Amino acid sequence: MFIDYARIKIKAGDGGDGAVSFRREKFIPKGGPDGGDGGRGGDIGAVGDTNVNTLLDYRNNRTFHAENGKPGAGARKTGASGEDITLRLPLGTEIFQISEDGRRKLADITEPGEMIILSKGGHGGKGNINFATPTNQAPRHATPGRKIPEMELELVLKLMADVGLVGFPNAGKSTLLSVLSAARPKIADYEFTTLEPMLGVVRVGDYQSFVMADIPGIIEGAHLGKGLGTQFLRHIQRTSVLLFLIDISTPDPVEAYRTLRNELHTYDTYMDRKPHLIALSKTDSIPDEELFALFARISERFGNECNETPMALSSVSGHNITELKYRLFKSIKALAD
After folding, report:
1. Are residue 233 and residue 284 in the same domain, yes or no?
2. In the prediction, which pLDDT does 187 show?
3. Phi, psi of 223 (to 5 degrees)
4. Looking at residue 160, what is its pLDDT?
5. Counting Cβ atoms within 10 Å, is residue 201 exposed (0-12), middle (13-18) or buried (19+)?
6. What is the pLDDT of residue 112?
7. Which of 9, 72, 161, 238 is the S-S candidate for 211 at Cβ 3.0 to 4.6 Å?
């Protein structure tokens, strides 16, 4: 199950208390102080893990407490440190702290193996050996370990992909992803077949590839939560390039494109500035003798009204699929150069 949101509570370990102790040896009736320090509490950290692709574990397990440090002991013995806890998170996870003051971003996990300390364990208290002075050779006090408060966190997963597929339900996004990559999304001829984001790796050459994300179809008002709403719009925020996929048989493809752009812009104005391509899909559904004239009329409107040049393609017949793959890869490379 794909889970991209969770709220959890974490608590780093408290530091162990320092000890009050005095040497007790047979021929030293009044030994000096020998109380050791308390151990350090365990940290709680987060690390990016490429083997994890969902926040499911954090939906079911909501509380994470690191081990407390052990108290100090006589003979100058320092207490053992508490065990750390590491949260293994999928790449693309944003971590926010929730408090009475609001919501504050703590971290953004984008690199595999990247370790971030979310809450540091408390330091151990000082044993009485630390407080001996020439005028106070038998101190009878030690300090407690530092206590660490519990924190409430919000985990938000935003998929990391190079290309984001944008379109209305039943525009052919899942079919296109399955043709371009080895991904196997659910495909059917009805709206909202895709109920969760899907990633696919698109091979361009022997050592070249890019990642494409298919998200559930957008409808007008998605930024307000209509349809599947903002639940999945965030997954294309990280993408470098957008591919607008519009069914060529849509009554008004240009207006459909405007609606899609408006939904993205209203949700996040930055997405409106991303490089993008427009593809008119399902050309196999139009008779050949009609397709050329239809595509010419639509292209002319896109040019005149939007200053855009769409391309035609069919995932079923394979028309322009290779061309699309290389154009997307070229756009991605241009951003990296």
Report:
1. yes
2. 41
3. -65, -15
4. 80
5. middle
6. 92
7. 161
Length of the chain: 337
Task: Give residue 194's pLDDT.
Answer: 45
**Residue span of the structural domain in which 147 resides:** 5-157
Number of domains in the chain: 2
**What pLDDT is attached to residue 31?**
73
Q: Burial of 194 by CB count in 10 Å (0-12 exposed, 13-18 middle, 19+ buried)?
A: buried
Q: Cα 26 to the chain's mean position, in Å?
A: 63
CB 41 within 8 A of CB 12: yes
Helix orientation angle between 173-180 and 321-336, rounded to the nearest 10 degrees: 80
pLDDT at site 84: 97
One domain for residues 105 and 210? no
DSSP labels for 64-81?
EEPPPPPPPBTTTBPPPP
Q: In the prediction, which pLDDT does 199 show?
A: 80
Of 96, 85, 97, the C-alpha closest to 61 is 85
User: pTM for the whole thing?
Assistant: 0.74
User: Which residues does residue 212 pair with via DSSP β-bridges, in sequence order?
Assistant: 163, 200
Q: What is the pLDDT of residue 188?
A: 40
CA-to-CA distance for 156 and 19, rounded, in angstroms? 43
Candidates 12, 106, 9; CA nearest to 61 is 9
B/e letters for 151-190, b = 16+ CB within 10 Å, e = fewer, are: bebbbbbbbbbbbbbbbbbbbbbbbbbbbbbebebeeeee
The answer to whether residues 89 and 171 belong to one domain is: no
Burial of 58 (0-12, 13-18, 19+ CB in 10 A): buried
For residues 202 and 210, the answer to whether their CB atoms sit within 8 Å is yes
Q: Is residue 235 located within the same domain as residue 108?
A: no
